[in-house]
Amino acid sequence: MPAPALTGPQYLGEGLKLILSPGLRLFVLLPLSINLILFCGLIYLAIHQFELWVDAFMPTLPHWLSFLSYILWPLF
């Protein structure tokens, strides 16, 4: 039998209440903060490495292909 349509959002609200309970707060906030720091650091590293790659790659192309640098950044 299919569940009612509001069951998902209702469980989401109950989950948020559980996350904010004092006993689980440490077990939620600590891994979340570690993951956030790692994710931000890896995004910074990826953008920096992509910038270095584009800077090294573009001089090897003919001048008429210089528009590729504007196309590569949104694709990244």
Automatic annotation (TrEMBL):
Membrane topology: Multi-pass membrane protein
TM spans (from-to): 26-45
GO molecular function, one term: high-affinity sulfate:proton symporter activity
Location of the protein in the cell: Membrane
Pfam families: EI24
A GO-annotated cellular component: plasma membrane
Keywords annotated in UniProt: Amino-acid biosynthesis, Cell inner membrane, Cell membrane, Cysteine biosynthesis, Membrane, Sulfate transport, Transmembrane, Transmembrane helix, Transport
Chief subcellular location: membrane
Biological process according to GO: cysteine biosynthetic process; sulfate assimilation
Protein name as annotated: Sulfate transporter CysZ
